[in-house]
Amino acid sequence: MARKILVGPVEELPTGARKIVDAGGIEIGVFNVAGAFYALPNLCVHQWGPLCAGDVSGTLANSSETDWRYQWVRDGTIVICPWHSLEFDITTGQCLAYPRVKLRRYNVAVEDDCIYILL
Amino acid sequence: MSTTIPTIGIRRHRQLDQLLIVDFDVHILDERQEIAAFCDPPWRQMLVDGPIVPPFGGNARLYPVFPGHWSTRKISRQTPAEVRAALDDLSIDLGVLFPERLLAIGQQPNAEYAMALVRAYNRWLTATYLQETRGLYGVVAVAPQDPEGSAREIEHYAREDRVVGVMLPTTRLEPLWGHRKFDPIYQAAEAAGIAVFYHGGAPVQMPMLPFDLRQFDTPFMFHTYTHSIEMMTTLANLMSTGVPVRFPRLKMIYIEAGISWVPHAMLRMDRIWEEDRESAPLLAERPSTYMRRQMYYATQPIEEPESLADMADVIRMIGGGDSVLFASDFPHHDFDHPKKVFDIPVSADTKRKIMGENGLAVLGISPLPASEHVPGKTLPQRM
Fold first, then answer.
1. Residue A9 belongs to domain with CATH number
2. Is the ipTM of this complex over 0.85?
3. Which residues of B touch A (CB under 8 A)?
């Protein structure tokens, strides 16, 4: 049976906010991105840094469609590890630098106006 | 916008608690408010409320920076106890402390002010961090603008137990550290039996030896090469003027450029020496011989190839690990967790040397008293 870890009341985690919770020996970061909740391990795959404590921001991109000019994209969906700045998409766990690196994602549920992680 | 690097969340790794770890690069924040009380007049007043107080006001780089990305991050102000606690979390027993702001001392045009700053730093360092807790060691700051005054600083502080070297920043200075005008600094360090630490740093967007950022469009581009080219330029200059020949007992340590530049420098200099030896005739042997005999290379930022075995090859090319020293550069944005270096597949003996034993030998500390170990470590007894 899945374990339910209480994160907190929904109003504690407005859009753009994040909370790191201790889920019995592992730390998990829960994020609100545009009204939806996502949960990622608070452990960077690079050098074991506290990934979820990093700034939530966007990133720069350029492509042939913009004649290789810079664009600011994915604002509010990228968490940047505070140790060495590896960027991850909060909604998918995808590492922006390495296509093969993807973080595990935990299921999140909302019941009675409270957020839970399902382990 | 700035974020301090959190120290909570650093995980102790059990393997690291079974060996001694000596860290050749830990930074403390020498803010003007911190060192003002230790500064001579009239400069003290200027540090307290001067309107323009170099080198404490920004780094003069002009790259655009977006929210949350690396250049926005700053070292936090930390007490000696906080630095010690962070090193404990990283299993680091002994840390050699370096300043932050005074890495830019070389570009200060006023020699008297430059000398006042390094004197204030040395007083502050020895009165605070080196007194208050275990396992924190430091280096004397000097001013390239005043080699004789700097030599007196070295003579004065080399008697202190926890002063283990002299810091020579490799950026924003002219001439380079091989110039004969710096002989008094090398004489004082060699006589005192302490090492010199060539510490790399990021240069500014103006013509400034040994690295000029004009035409470097992005942080990616400049960060790729600045430190390693500073090291190679400084090293070639030291060879050219024969510093290791003229100061044969001097130990020279290169900090903050990784180690992959070292095999390149050895191979390249040996090749050129064959052809151009007569222009540096005081080199009696191949440059790589001096590089293995008297010079040491700190690991950070350790290269991270897909196969870590490639780094074992780099270490073998440098000479098998006797010249390689672990450094973390904590708490900077590109610091290394010791486990990243520990994981390089070399022999257990070489691991122990790189992580700590080489370092103790270079610093002339043997053995490190048990009272200075990270609490909770179980170090195997060695014959």
1. 2.102.10.10
2. no
3. 3, 5-6, 8-11, 66-70, 73, 333-337, 339-340
The CA distance from B349 to B217, in Å, is: 43
pLDDT one-digit tens code per residue, A3-18: 899 999 999 999 999 9
The C-alpha atoms of residue B144 and residue B141 are separated, in whole angstroms, by: 10
Tokens of B323: 């010249």
- What would the pLDDT profile of B116-142 be if each residue is shown by its tens digit? 999 999 999 999 999 978 999 999 999
In chain B, at which residue ranges do the beta strands (DSSP E only) sit?
A: 22-27, 94-98, 136-141, 163-169, 195-199, 252-255, 295-298, 324-325
Range of the domain at A81: 4-118
Residue with tokens 């950026």: B171
Distance from CA of A37 to the nearest CA of B (A): 21
Task: Provide the domain limits for residue B358.
Answer: 14-372
Query: Based on the structure, what is the number of domains in chain B?
Result: 1
Q: Could you tell me the two tokens for B86?
A: 């962070």
Asked if residue B33 belongs to a domain, the reply is yes
Q: With H, G, I as helix, E, B as strand and everything else as coil, classify residue B324.
A: strand
Quick one: tokens of A20? Answer: 């790191």
Q: How big is the A-B interface in CB pairs under 8 Å?
A: 49
What is the pLDDT, as a whole number, of residue B61? 66
Q: From CA B167, how far away is CA B102, in angstroms rounded?
A: 10
Retrieve residue B322's tokens.
């006797």
pLDDT reported for residue B60 = 58
Q: Is B248 part of a structural domain of the chain?
A: yes
Q: What is the per-residue pLDDT for B6?
A: 42
Q: Which amino acid is at A9?
A: P
Q: Looking at residue A112, what DSSP letter applies?
A: T
CATH number, residue B234: 3.20.20.140
Q: How far apart are CA A90 and CA A85, in angstroms?
A: 14
Interface contact flag, A48 B339, Cβ < 8 Å: yes
- How many Cα atoms sit within 13 Å of B355 on the Cβ side? 26
Residue B171 lies in a domain: yes
Asked if pLDDT for residue B71 goes beyond 60, the answer is no
| Residue B380 counted as domain residue | no
Whether B301 has a pLDDT exceeding 50, the answer reads yes
Question: What pLDDT is recorded for position B55?
Answer: 86
Beta bridge partners of B97: B26, B138
Closest by alpha carbon to A52, among A12, A22, A25, A14? A22
